[in-house]
What we know:
The structure holds 2 protein chains of 2 kinds.
Chain A: H1 3-18, H2 24-34, H3 37-68, H4 71-91, H5 105-118, H6 126-131, H7 147-180, H8 184-188, H9 192-211
Chain B: H1 14-17, E1 25-31, E2 38-45, E3 56-65, E4 73-74, E5 94-98, E6 105-109, E7 118-123, H2 125-132, E8 134-143, E9 146-154, E10 163-167, E11 174-177, E12 191-194, E13 199-202, H3 208-211, H4 217-221, E14 228-233, E15 238-244, E16 249-257, E17 265-273, E18 279-287, E19 290-299, E20 302-303, E21 318-319, E22 323-328, E23 334-339, E24 344-349, E25 357-363, E26 388-390, E27 396-400, H5 405-411, E28 420-425, E29 429-431, E30 446-452
Antiparallel strand pairs in B: 1-2, 1-30, 2-3, 4-5, 5-6, 6-7, 8-9, 9-10, 10-11, 12-13, 13-14, 14-15, 16-17, 17-18, 18-19, 20-21, 22-23, 23-24, 24-25, 26-27, 27-28, 28-29
Amino acid sequence: MNDGSLIALVALGAFHGLNPGMGWLFAVARGLQERSRAVVLQSLPAIAAGHAASVFAVAAVVTLTGSVLTSRVVSIGGGVLLVGFGLWRLLSTRHFRWVGMRLTLWQLAGWSFLMSSAHGAGLMLLPVLTHGSVAVHGHSHGLTGGAGSAVTAALFVTGVHTLAMFIVAGTIAVLVYEVVGLAILRRAWFNLDRLWAAALICAGAATLLITA
Amino acid sequence: MALWKPDPTFYPSPRDAISAPPETLAYVAAFDRSADRPDAIAVLDVDPGSTSYGSVVGWTDLPYTGDELHHFGWNACSSALCPYAPHPHVERRYLIVPGLRSSRVYVIDVKDDPLKPSILKVLEPDELAKHAGYSRPHTVHCGPEGLYVSALGGANGEDGPGGIALLDHTSFEVLGRWEVDRGPQYLAYDVWWHIAHDVVVTSEWGTPSMIEDGVNADLLLGRKYGHALHFWDLRKRRHLQRVDLGDEHQMVLELRPAHDPTKTYGFVGVVVSVEDLSASVWVWYREDGEFTARKVITIPAEPAAAEDLPPVIAPFGAVPPLVTDIDLSVDDRFLYVSCWGTGELKRYDVTDPFNPVEAGSVRVGGIVNRTPHPAVPDVPLSGGPQMVEVSRDGKRVYVTNSLYGSWDDQFYPDGVGAWMAKLDSGQEFTFDERFFPHGEDFRGLRPHQTRLQGGDASSDSYCYP
Lengths: 212, 465
């Protein structure tokens, strides 16, 4: 894994963590409801776990497919899929629907998994997955070196990405809960959905361009 | 079109909403009792600095007649900020306006020309019947899964049960019947929720056959109108609990849950007790996982001579207060209670919800008193304070005077008239003498519910304390 890919993974993790819709806002809401910072802190790992599961599912599929198909096929297929998904996110007015505030931590992790999957959080990592093709742990077979190393690679990508997401989401959640207050939402909650859709399209285009 | 920043009228918490700027326009549903002319949405200037303050400055006539506009609501509100499915970049710009008699639902755009809102979409009654099995749509709330529209009646030849229809909040199509398991619930009226506790509350009036031709004395004395509250699981759409207030308490109408999302109490008004014609306000609350209700306000009937009373109540020798609407300020401090029969609007301090303390009262209209408005002190008024709306900052209270066409005619047989009043609510609780649109200002239509531009005390729910 080269430095550029690593930075991209961390940056995307931070971007996902920043999005209120990906979970930090839910953690804050749960804490405010119970007037307890402990509840904020307990909620964050569950949210991160759901996000990680969603990202890992995509990473595993991509790397495993990459271990049987040529990386060129995976890149082109994945890139086209990603551009299409991004366009759909950009043009559709539908949003993720869920009802219910009172969730167990398991349900919260499930919510996070669905929320991340519906937004294509894992898909956004496609350029890294297909082109970060230098070794995990110093081997130079890239992400296409067989099923075992494919899973290892997927785990690594998921781990780095989720750690970045968790740190950013956690920092924001605690800051908003303790210091800033939710009124900030009215001023600073930019429409990340559009930016998100743009990121998906760019990631797809990047995947295709690098391949071509 | 999605916005880049959240709609400025959305507030995360009731504490934030209180700091909202004062409204400058109010929308009032107005209907033609004779159904000869179309009903309309009247636009009122409520900006005290404006030269047309207190007058009707715009009209949107509907394309049909006989709708009987009643209650209405917004396409989106502060619940769009809720954390589990946030979509704060939609706009609050459409009024969802049901016709209680026709079962049509109008979607009306107030953005392009706020003084002359335009009709974006009309849902015909068969949409509601086909997809949800309901008719007589009433209350509209913007919530997590879309728009929740309570409906009093069944459809396709059925009188009931009434229930909740779910509308998509972008296409405004009817998605279907909300209830998965309705338990013993049959009668419907209002709906609201404890949104942060995943609890829905509904109340009971009557089915269309019980109300459309006026209040039916046999049904009333037979205690057949609604007298219970229902609690539901908002996520699973299942009935949880029925709380009976006692069958002498007839017609359980407006639901006003606490705005503070950490709380699980709320207020509901009962129109009349058949034992002594009193009206009452109840508080519901949750204790050990179960909901209970307790009567916290009783308003007695006022003795009157039979010849001063309309036939419907002449035998009783008293005027029932008829509490037909209540409204709770966004800070959950003041509860306003309309006594449409006696012509009184009461204000209670409900800081302790179990011990309301009366904190002001004004008289206007009334079946017997006919109290004039101070702006026109020599003209006796028909009708009484009915629908109450409170501004987000809690400083201004608006009331209109019509209840429901056929019931207006029974209790005010010489004409219910048409008027709207505004009260200033601070240390004092008094009429604003500059604000009194009445009579021909409403072009012969009867004003019913008011919605304030940007939201009001009964339009928004909040997920954060």
